[in-house]
Amino acid sequence: MLGAIWQDSKLMSIMAGFFSAMAFALLGYAGLQWLIHRPLFELQKVELTGEVDRINLVSFRANVLPEVQGSFFSVNLSDVREQVEDQPWVRKAVIQRMWPNGLRIRIQSQKPLAYWGDNLLINTYGEVFSANPAEVGDNVLQATLNGPPGSELLVAKMYVNASKVLRKLGLQLKDVNLSDRYGWSFKTESGLNIELGREQENFTINQKLDRLVAIYPKIKEQLMQTVDSIDLRYPRGVAVKGERLAGANAKPVALKTSLN
């Protein structure tokens, strides 16, 4: 039977073509491997661009560069990106090959919005991250935010929105807290505690903030010399604690305002 195969010129031609192609493929692969491992393509340069103001270059060289392994062709860009994004103040990184022996790393840095809890920071995207607050700069982080796991973006948005509202009243937010039951409470730099409670179908958080804007000036002008706390959880009134103005009515305060 083997003899019949050797005598079959058409089959032998197909087999010869197959083995020739295999030989060329193996030679090509071997040549490619030889080429990509030449010293010319060994990584020698890493260019750092983008938002690098807060990047500690000493730490970057010590922690990132030793992990960059391979040549221009073989380096794993995903591994490099993960290593870069693990560094403080780096939010995102884009890694590109730079012919013939370099990498370009483009950095998007963290933009801190406030403190998150006791030890972390939160950025303008509502993402929590770890970094040294001393590197932020004076008067950048002015508030501390807290909330249950998964609420980071919600709390960050509330802080931004409520800060705009309270600035109309000459107040600056210091603390924003969302309880495990999703009740809101604020504290200002002046020490004023503001209770908003939970979002309600017929009495939303935005409506409560509108009520605060409407009544706070009246409270200061007509009733209270200093205001310690305002409780806005009640649909038909507010509870206020503080030092009354001389001659102000000593009866409990219940101010009603329209929600329209």
From TrEMBL:
Chain segments annotated as transmembrane: 12-36
Subunit annotation: Part of a complex composed of FtsB, FtsL and FtsQ.
Pfam families associated with the record:
FtsQ_DivIB_C, POTRA_1
Query: What's the main place this protein lives?
Result: membrane
Protein topology in the membrane: Single-pass type II membrane protein
What are the alphabetically sorted keywords of the record? Cell cycle, Cell division, Cell inner membrane, Cell membrane, Membrane, Transmembrane, Transmembrane helix
Q: Where is the POTRA domain?
A: 41-110
| One of the GO BP terms on file | cell division
This chain's source organism reads Limnobacter litoralis
User: Per the similarity annotation, which family is this?
Assistant: Belongs to the FtsQ/DivIB family. FtsQ subfamily.
Which named protein is this? Cell division protein FtsQ
UniProt KW Cell division keyword: yes
Q: Where in the cell is it found?
A: Cell inner membrane; Membrane
KW Zinc (keyword) present: no
What does the UniProt record say this protein does?
Essential cell division protein. May link together the upstream cell division proteins, which are predominantly cytoplasmic, with the downstream cell division proteins, which are predominantly periplasmic. May control correct divisome assembly.
Give start-end ranges for the coiled-coil region(s).
none
